[in-house]
Amino acid sequence: MKKHNILLIHPTIQPNGVSYLEEHSNVFLAPNGDTQTLIQWMNEHSIEGVLTRCEYIGKEIMDAVPTLKVIGQHGVGLDNIDVKEATAHNIQVLNVPDANYISVAEHTMMFLLALSRSLRINDTSVRADSWYSRENRYTMELLDKTLLIVGLGRIGKAVAKLAQAFSMRVLSYDNYVPQSAMEALGIQKVDVLEEGLSQTDFVTLHVPLTKETQGMMSTPQFEAMKNTAYLINMGRGPVVDEDALVAALQQGQLAGAGLDVLNVEPPAADHPLFQMDQVIFTPHIGGDTREAKYRTSEILSRTVLEALDGKSPYNWVNRS
To answer: For the chain, how many structural domains are there in total?
Structure first.
């Protein structure tokens, strides 16, 4: 007899995860992630575990659903889950911190290459039946260029390894990683962000959104960078002060940017960054390769059931 009741939300996790859950538990599919819809479905079906992607799970739901024991986040970021309230309600929160870091690192290298070779500008030129950019815009190699990685977790370390394969000089700013650990990876530690920014040809952001990181890239930081340098944001949109970024690009303080994340997603159609051909966008898909999605679904479905069975899964983020 299947002993656990699990709620998924449409659109849900990948088929491999759904199949695993259906094999071992009773699975229900809510039509959307609205708070009242979730409360209704959870109470009607005595839900013990819910798997989320971007749906907000906060105090209102936790107060209203006494059966809820586990919240599983399909990904790394926990912006949409009130972890403090979950802890107060004795609800375990799980994420998947190690399933998509290779995908994000490869996406970062895609931005590095695309920006260094003015890919968007050159593509637009060819499509306009003009080879004007070939003679009027010089691109550059990554060889011997300096990359500053802000946040040296799994993703940052993977980016460093890939960048070193291109013979780039790699710096990192991360107050939680000691100098000895960075030196062992062939990375130079930067203690003051602006000092690292002044040296770099590319800076790539791989930090979560916290009070400490929100707006950490703003006017003073852009002023510290060379006007030939590029910014890549693969973390969270609000880590970058977008008004300051717009101004820096308009004033020529930066050469360009590669942005997988923005403050508001999706952004307004008249966003000023859309007027800048030196900026390349992707729709928050850095970790969304086929392989990473299936890996994430497999890990999350398995560990949610482990938690409900009273075990201590490795990805339990609010473990006391």
So the answer is: 2
